[in-house]
Amino acid sequence: MNDDKMRQYKIAYSVREASEISGLSPATIHKLCNEGRLTRRKVGKRTFILAADLMNFFLNCPQEKHHRFAAVDAKKVR
């Protein structure tokens, strides 16, 4: 199996990988972990973020409210 296919099936990511996949900086990943909003796992000296924990973090983030210009744009359509 090539690296791209293996990455699809990973159950845990290094902080760097979690950063690349999520679009968050490594510093933000560490901050979220320190705040208890994201769980990190230690295996020896390595730190991992479970794929499920990363997904749950985003699923539990507040949804963006409608943009204040959305109503104005809707009026233009009518």
UniProtKB/TrEMBL annotation:
Superkingdom classification of source: Bacteria
Pfam families for this protein: HTH_17
Helix-turn-helix domain boundaries: 13-59
InterPro entries, per the entry: HTH_17 (IPR041657)
Protein name: Helix-turn-helix domain-containing protein
